[in-house]
Amino acid sequence: MKPTKTLLTAAALATAAGGVSAEEMTIVSWGGAYSKSQLKAYHEPYSEKTGVTILNDDSSAEAVAKLRAMNEAGNITWDVVDVVAADAIRLCDEGLALEIDPDTMLAPAPDGTSAADDFGDLLVSDCFIPQIVYSTTFGYRTDLVGDTPPTDVCAVFDTETYPGKRSLEKRAINNMEWALICDGVAKDDVYDVLATSEGQDQALAKLATIKDDVVWWSAGADTPQLLADGEIVMGSTYNGRLFSVIEEQKQPVAMLWDAQIFDLDGWIIPAGLSEERQQRALDYIMFATDTQRLADQAKYISYGPARASSAPLVGQHAELGIDMAPHMPTDPENAKNTFLYNYEFWADYRDDIEAKFQAWLAQ
Amino acid sequence: MTDASQNAGPMLAADGTPLKQSLARSLRRQKLRALMLIAPLLLFVIFSFIVPIASMLFRSVENSIVQETLPLTVEALQNWDEFSGETPDETVYDAFVRDMVVAVDNKTHTRLGSRLNYEETGMSSLFRRSGRKLGKLDPETDGPFKEQLIEIHEGWGEPQTWAVIKTHSPAVTNGYFLNAVDMRRTPEGAQSQPEDKQILIKLFGRTLFMSLIITGACILLAYPVSYLLATLPMRVSNMLMILVLLPFWTSLLVRTSAWKVMLQQQGVINETLVWLGLVADDARLVIINNQFGTIIAMTHILLPFMILPMYSVMQTIPPYYTRAAKSMGATNWTTFWRIYFPQSIPGIGAGSILVFILAIGYYITPEIVGGTKGVFISNRIAYHISSSLNWGLAAALGTILLAVVMLLYWCYDKIVGIDNVKLG
Questions:
Q1: Which domains does chain A have, with CATH numbers?
Q2: Residue B196 touches chain A, beta carbons under 8 Å
Q3: What is the pLDDT of residue A19?
Q4: What is the ipTM of this complex?
């Protein structure tokens, strides 16, 4: 095993040295409108400033598995990777991501506040540099809900008042929390209840009441499509996707912000890059996560910047010309009742609860 | 001949060397040349097929991470009785701190936590949270450690934690295979998973069952089409052939998404039926996001793999056999059933093997149109590869799938005979 590994590593190093020129870096992200917002807000200004060519790779959905495979092969071809916080924690645990010291590696806020304070609690892992706050929340068809549009997340479980299909993500995370809240569990107790086997059964029993009315989605684009087709009356997805259905495609859809679940998306730098590439990646990160750049991204997509100091700088949509602040999940009007994805809890319970959830789905 | 060679001693070639030697040399040279001609393909197959499969087989039993990360602890735990219901003594804790100081330094402790979390919920955060404080301890001067560890995290005071480490310490494990058949490795030996976590056996069964249905549907649909293709005049059959091949050339994702548009409740089929008044508006058919959707979409996608081998076999069936049968008074049915059909069986066999083996490995189509009841075992494999990162379990599932395919192939060979398969 050992000699082959060394041989492979040597071969990989040789190709890496020959393949990547000093003026190129590969940035991995999610594709679609999200990558476009990063291109406009980060990549183009950075290339202009430094002359570095940025190559895009839309592989974020498989980033964890691919990074692990690259690490085993000893040939890491990515320089900066955009992942959700839960994946960043996994990568950090696996030793696949570089640990970041916010005070030396990230830019301070314009008023001198250190990066660590500016990001605050959002620095959920030692390897993770937060970029945006997004939320998973519900949208509904305004023409299919009658005269009483839903204001409460429990409308999802109320098939009498709101008949029709609803869409939920094909995984336990988020759905279990909503089910418990709507089954009368207090918000502060949700994770204590969910940690017990009885609590998990309780959540699944609540979900079972609407099981026949649910279309389960696995890609973020599914719910917007189903809403636009009138296939469902309401469904969960990422708030930015709903923004584009409502504001860009002008579909009869509205947001139900109640009990939205905040999650973070941001950067990691793969561990094991050569000194030169790591330096370049860090330089990019320093630039792309400063206060102005994070605020700029909100011109193109309705996700909230992760720095406190960026919020006041959020302006208007670059093409539609509408104010972006009221469309941010973090806007006080929208954020009356919110959750933050419980990273610690799900890192422990994900394997267990997900297995139960999938078994329940298949019944 | 024998007499002559006996009389004249060994036969000599033109250059004077014994003929036997010269022959052997030229044969060897020929073999070498043949080997060199196939060498590119051989190397390609070895590196892109045999090596990955071997590594997958190996990964499904490989479990050296526990021993490599906690070598002293694993040794110390040998003397601890996991059935005693009590925590181990100080020697284990001391060994554990020594191991963890090294592991935290190399940042491998969280990796071990993720590995053990597949077996016992909570291990991930136990290792992650304790890591920083444990790494600061000095094994030489800070002992004894038992109290300190329980102080850092109460999980270290649970006998269960140590039992899990001990149970999963062997470098070669059957744990992943047990998980793959809804069982688990415990100190008391292999046990069933709790009922509410059993899913994989059911998915294996469903995958095989639905693949059989899809293969059957393909046979029924492809047979008349292939018959037409093989018997119609060349010009017409070429046109028809293009109709078969056109979807074959279209991207899999496009075709699957098209089925979504066709089958959903506000989709083309339902809209048409409602418009015709055959179905009430509030009782639209549910024909997607279930097994039916998967069967329809996959039958359509795999149909060309059935038509093409059938067609090429049927083309070789001489038309005068059926004419002869009819001239001797056989009815149309008898002619077909006794004369034509038996000759077309090799095509059905080849098509069925192709379609069935492709079907049981299918992943993207069931994911898109299968809802919850139409997904296959490959969807779980994909989940464990890309989301849960439990590659050991994914490898075990893949190995079982491979074994099932080989078993079925063997059965097919015994029952039908593999010589009875023709691609044309």
A1: 2-133+264-327 (3.40.190.10), 141-262+342-362 (3.40.190.10)
A2: yes
A3: 44
A4: 0.86
